Task: structure prediction
Amino acid sequence: MSAPLLQPGVRVREVWAWAMYDFANSGYTTVVITAVFGAYFVAGVAGNAPWATFAWTLALSVSYGLIMLTAPLIGAWADAHAGKKRLLWLTTLGCVGFTALLYWAGPGALALAIIALVASNYFFGTGENLIAAFLPELARPRALGRVSGWGWSLGYVGGLVSLAASLAWIGWAQDHGLGADDFVRVSMVITAALFLVASLPTLLLLRERAVPQPAQRARNAWAQVRHTLGHLRRLPDLRRFLVCTVLYQAGIQAVITLAAIYANQVFHFDTARTIQLVLVVNVTAALGAFFFGHVQDRIGHVRAIALTLLGWIGMVLLAWAAPDETLFWIAANLAGLCMGASQSAARAMVGLLAPPAQQAEFFGLWGLAVKLASILGPLTYGAASWISAGDHRRALLVTGSFFVAGLLALRGIEAGRGWRAAQRFARDGREG
Result:
């Protein structure tokens, strides 16, 4: 990391503090959504009912729907009041608290499990949008890919730490005769505690560089969002990228949400082996995010994202055709590489295409696109598995079509043209 890559006045310590939030919140998605609680929800809380996988995806979809309704409004308010940091405190404490509440989500406690899951995921997703909006304040345009990659790769390390802690506890619990009803619930408390502790550097050291916008304060949040959406035609590359995001992120979110369920139902992975799988995948994801950020800044944002989408398509075909665990492990690690690279690349792309002084609002729109994808992808998988009487291979293949659609939508986007349009949009002002 060198000073010319950072915005004036930004210190390396502050970039580290920003990246630590990726470290902190990744434990939530890795343990709660991907590796541990999802499979336990289906098998333990819902008792392997035929509708259990669909109920899991539906609960997550409700939380994503709430984020969609509020993300642009929260972003507009944060821009107007320079309040990203204050809101980040609130979302962090909310996610930590409701994750800990999952301790009481045992067999039969379906209502409690769904309420805590919806609330914790809502606060997680809202905080994810807010921390992303700090990126253009820290990195120069030519280094957005690298700095985003540093944060995302550190995030996968955080996921590894949370998973390793959960795996250590589960191993001890199993050695002492405890079952999943005991060790899964305690792992939720461990995950919540690690999230809180690891987020403290961000909450204490990261500066709010945005200044209040009096003109934006004059409008309420709904009016500001309507105004911005009405002017998206002046940002055609950003608008097209948001559509592209909905499509390919639908595939990614399905993989993230249902990886443990797929491994359990198709290859009969137990909780410990699923965690081992996700541990390995997190390593490849961290490598993908870190190194691909440099590639992205070198070859360009659009080409970099296209390359990752080709990788995702290959992964789906491998996992679908895998006759045994060997090919599935290869597919899973390919997914890790593509996940780290594509997620980091998308965040950097939005940072490049969003007008200055409206970063939180436009990252809120990006969050809306991702959360719409988070409803579309998992629900498509859940419905496909239900309709096909539990054929998870077919459900994965159906979900993989989103990556093909995203690749087609990516055509015609020019990052340089989009950046120039964003600068003109900012110069002309909000009344233009």
The chain is about 80% helix and 0% strand. The chain has a mean pLDDT of 85. The two ends are 38 Å apart (CA to CA).
